[in-house]
Design brief:
Blueprint (H helix, E strand, L loop, with lengths): L1 H30 L2 H7 L4 H12 L9 H10 L4 H13 L2 H36 L21 H9 L2 H37 L2 H7 L3 H11 L6 H13 L4 H13 L2 H11 L1 H29 L3 H9 L4 H15 L1 H10 L6
């Protein structure tokens, strides 16, 4: 019963914020065309790398979901640095995971996670981009190639589309594709968090859950995992409540969602083994340094991270959590979602 209670408590706290994050993800999808992304993220150098990291951060894509867009950018002329920064910044944090981070981790850890993801993307992008670029084979054409004569045509088509059509498409993407991608992993994350909170005494992990070695360990186990930023959040909350330091939990939040085995394989094929080595080095070193900095700030400022986590959970009434959780459960089950779609006028099944 303790496991069920703790898991349900985390789910109720997260559900309204996750709904808000999915809504924001739908708006991003609806009103930021891919052609505009390619225009913004072109070029090389520190400005292009920083722009790629910042622009990629709010996009609702996991590590595997970011691969096609990143490949299109690289094959369309973007340098290794911006491509890498986009490939890291996009899955590292997103509007949905920012919202759930505030609910489960509190304002300080939410800000540390967002800034950490962007900083890791910039640092690793610069490290990969610093290598002398050799001409890699281009695998086919992309949208950017055909836009050399003018990318105004697709943009004009976008402008001509009715506002409600674009909005409906964006929301459908957020509450079907994105939710389908994260629902199973989110459930696993909630269960893992519940187990850690219910059965692991805080003093057990407090002894071994801080310092350089635990952070490096978190980075090494996080890199090959396939876990989205949203699903990683309850696990990080469980780690902190079980006694792991905030900085060590941050390393997991950065290294886990940023990459996966699929990302590593594509990166090696597209950019080469040297770029892959720099990519891994950048992620490990950046995440560990940021985790160390967070632990230092928490200690020096005397921040009560567990207290912030509890306060954030109590901001919204419990009835709202139940309603949001019920709606998410319906939307996550495809037959129920189709039935709801058929019941709503003008909705696609």
């Amino acid at each position: 019963m303790t496991l069920l209670y703790e898991t349900l408590a985390i789910a109720l706290a997260a559900a309204p914020w996750l709904l808000l994050g999915l809504l924001a993800a739908g708006l991003v999808k609806a009103f930021i065309p891919e052609a505009m992304l390619q225009h913004w993220l072109g070029g090389r150098g520190i400005a292009a790398v920083s722009r790629a990291a910042v622009i990629g951060a709010p996009l609702p894509l996991c590590s595997c979901g970011a691969i096609p867009t990143a490949l299109a950018l690289h094959r369309g002329g973007a340098g290794r640095g911006p491509t890498t920064a986009f490939l890291i910044g996009t899955p590292g944090i997103g509007v949905d995971s920012v919202a759930i981070s505030y609910a489960l981790l509190g304002p300080f850890m939410m800000a540390a996670r967002a800034l950490g993801a962007v900083s890791t993307a910039i640092a690793t992008g610069l490290l990969v981009g610093a290598a002398r670029e050799t001409e890699m084979p281009r695998h086919g054409t992309t949208q950017t190639d055909c836009c050399a004569g003018g990318c105004d045509a697709p943009a004009q088509q976008d402008r001509e589309q009715a506002m409600y059509t674009r909005l409906a498409g964006g929301l459908r993407y957020a509450f079907t594709d994105v939710l389908d991608d994260i629902s199973v992993w989110l459930l696993i994350g909630l269960l893992v968090a519940g187990i850690m909170i219910a059965f692991i005494p805080p003093e057990t992990l407090a002894t071994y859950g801080s310092g350089l070695l635990p952070m490096v360990f978190m980075a090494l186990i996080g890199i090959p995992m396939y876990i989205c930023a949203t699903a990683a959040t309850p696990i990080a909350a469980g780690l902190i409540l079980a006694g792991v330091s905030p900085g060590t939990a941050l390393v997991f939040l950065l290294a886990g969602p940023i990459t996966s085995m699929a990302t590593l394989g594509v990166l090696r094929r597209e950019l080469g083994a040297g770029a892959l080595a720099r990519y891994l080095t950048g992620i490990i070193v950046s995440s560990v340094l940021l985790g160390t900095l967070v632990d230092l700030l928490v200690t020096r400022a005397g921040l009560d991270i567990a207290g912030q986590m509890g306060a954030a959970r109590e901001l919204l009434p419990q009835w709202l959590g139940w309603m949001a959780l019920l709606l998410l459960a319906v939307l996550a089950v495809r037959p129920a979602r189709r039935a709801l779609g058929r019941a709503l006028p003008g909705s696609a099944p």
